[in-house]
Every structure is written in C-alpha cells, then in structure tokens.
C-alpha cells in the first residue's frame, strides 16, 4: 500500500511518467488493476462476473496510471496496448454502476484514465486510417418533417441510461427514435438507422474504447454519480469519442441519441460546477455534427445554453460566475447549433438569446467572450427570414455590427465550427497560472482542418485565443494530478 501510494505521488512529476510506464505498467496492471477490477481474461462459462474491489492499493495504482496517462501520445499508446488494462478498467466501471457505487476515488481515477485514452483515438489507434471519412456525415432518415419532429421528441424523452454494458460482438443496428406505441423490436420504416460493421469476434483491448456500447456506461455514470470530477471525465470521454472524422465518431453520436443521452447532458448544463458545464457544452457541440442531434439540441437545449449566457453576466450567487473558457464553450456550442439551421436560430430568439448575447458582448471584460457572442449574433442576422422579427423587437443591423466592432481586439479569434474533443484527468489546481480544460487548447502539430480540439498538457499547449476554425475538439490529459495521501 505504501509502495503504490509513493508511486502515485511520484507519477505527478513529469520526468518520471515514462519511467513508470517503462518499468511498472505491466506489473501494476497484472498484479493490481486486473485482479482488483473483477475482470477475468478467460472466465469459466458457469462463473458469475465478479465485482471490483475498491482497495487502497487499487485506488493508489489507478491514481498513478491516471497521472501517467496524461503524458502524451506515446504514453497513451503504451497504456492502450497494455493487455487487459482497458478491459479491466471498463469492467470496474460497469461494476460500480451495477452496485450504484460511482462516487469513490477509484471510479474517478478509472474514468479519467479511459477518457485520456479516448483522446485522439481517431488518429492514434492502429488501422484508424481505414475508418476515416472525407467529411462528417449524419445518418440519413426519410419521412415528413412532422413525423420526424414527433419521433425526435420521443428520442429526446427519458433521462435514465441504465442496463448492462457488454463488449460488442454482434452486428448491431441503432434505431432512433423509438416511436411511441411500437413494441420492442418493432421499428418505424422512417426512423433513422445506422448499421455497425460486422465483427467476426468480440471487441477487446483498446477497441473497447470507441465501441458504441460504451456510451451507455458513460451515460450511466453521468446519471448516477455525484462526483463532479467523475461527471466531467464521463462527459469528456463522450466529447473525445464524438470528435474526429471517422466512422466510429458517427456511430457514437447516433448511439448517444439512441440511448436517450441528450437529455442527460442537457440537464447537466444546470450544474453548479463550472468544469462540468464546460465539458457538457463541448460534448453537445461535438454531438451536434449529427444533423438529427443538432435539431434536437437546438429544440431542447437552447434555453439552458442561454441561461448560462445570462449567468455569465449575473451569477445566481456571489462568486459563481462561469469561467471564461466555459462561457466561450457555451457560446461556441450555440454558434454551432444555429449555423445552417434556421429553426435553431428561431429557437435562440424564442429563448431571448439575442438580448443576452448583446448584453454579454457589451459588458464582458473578455475579448474572447465578446468575440464568440458577436459570431453568434452575426450568424443570426444572416438569416433574412428572421430580420423582420428582430427588427420588431428593436434590433437593427447597425446594432449587430456594433456588437461585432466591440468584440474586435488583439486576442480575438474566429469562433470555430465543428466539434470538440476532450480528455483531461480532472485536476483541482491550475498549472503555472493556466486554467485546466478549455476547447481552445490543441496540439499544434497534431491537428488538421475539421479535426479535434483538445485540452492539452503543458508540453503541447496551444496559445490561448488561437481557436482554429472548422474543427472538432478533444480534451486531453492535463499533467500533474493531485498527489495521493498515504496512510
């Protein structure tokens, strides 16, 4: 116990992270993580799955691996390819969900590790190039607008995401929405479907990180846990998995909708914890690349997003103002869902979003916030169909142009479109004066157009305010987690 606690402490020191991976990863995985997780590499047919054991040794070891998983691409590769590690971590998390024991430190460590390992899966896992798409594409769906609206409302209903998660081994079809009045297994011919690739054997190892079935596990954590670090990490995992232009991200976006995950995320926009709101907002932005998700988020999440814009100006309680990174994340999510969607822009007007955006742009001391608010306003004004309603409410083109002029400044950056990737092991303190998390931090050398943002470690951190346009966003591990306290 003392040894693993010492390793946890040492693992927060940058120069030792790869040393620990080189000399201790296999031993820590096979001697501590796997045995305590309850996962069995070769279970007997008649054996009952074992639950994880939340021992101090497991907590210390998972904390150590949480730290070292933030050390960059090579560290992620080594952990992903460590036999049994991903399987054991996911089994432990499923055990926690099954026992409704999701608030302890070991669960927090495990979900932070898998979030970190989900960062850049669309680029880094072996064979990823075979699954790349030229452009992100939503699953198709036919039928009238009235029928789709009714079905989408059904898909958005129901907040609980429960059930047993299992490694996929079958050819699955995601059907969403579930049409009211239909029996199990009966689907409407106009509901959207998404066929997953056929598998000859069950997924295992790092493949489990991006299988659509893992969505249910993360949604269960988001529903059951009251640990804000666990909530941020689970939302960050969905953020990572729904970023990138490969087919698995398309499946993940559809799976979140199929599993009724959108209302779970929207409810968390009400969280009093800044980092949870930020992670959820960016996840919703990534998920909105799916057109059906975009329509649903515009209809059902707009009021909560606008409420967060208002709270940036007038916090509900003293000292509760959202951090700049969170406000910008919310604004960029609004910008994404109103872009190329007249209906969503109308939803913004109905939620009284324009006065909130104008007020924020005029009062905020942050150039980034003002710039992001200005981009939303300009997008709304670009819809000629809305100008009559805007002018009726007293808004003019000159007023919108004034908001844009006020937002100009040396640190301003264009509001990015597309998606965000997020993978950070949650940290309580900033490093060197930098805030952990944030959609604008991405590896300089790693990203191309329409790819992923990330919350970066210090070595790869991108200058603030340099948000590239048209990219998805990922969240990567931040270095230097809190040290273990050895007893």
Automatic annotation (TrEMBL):
Is Repeat included in the keywords of this UniProt record?
A: yes
Start-end of Low complexity biased regions:
403-412
Cellular component annotations (GO), alphabetically ordered: adherens junction; cytoplasm; nucleus; plasma membrane
By its UniProt entry, which Pfam families does this protein fall under?
A: Arm (PF00514)
- InterPro entries (UniProt xref): ARM-like (IPR011989), ARM-type_fold (IPR016024), Armadillo (IPR000225), Plakophilin/d_Catenin (IPR028435)
Xref: Gene3D superfamilies: Leucine-rich Repeat Variant
* Family named by the database record: Belongs to the beta-catenin family.
Q: Which protein, by its recorded name, is this? A: ARVCF delta catenin family member
- In its UniProt entry, the species of origin is given as Bos mutus (wild yak)
Task: Provide the taxonomic classification.
Answer: Eukaryota, Metazoa, Chordata, Craniata, Vertebrata
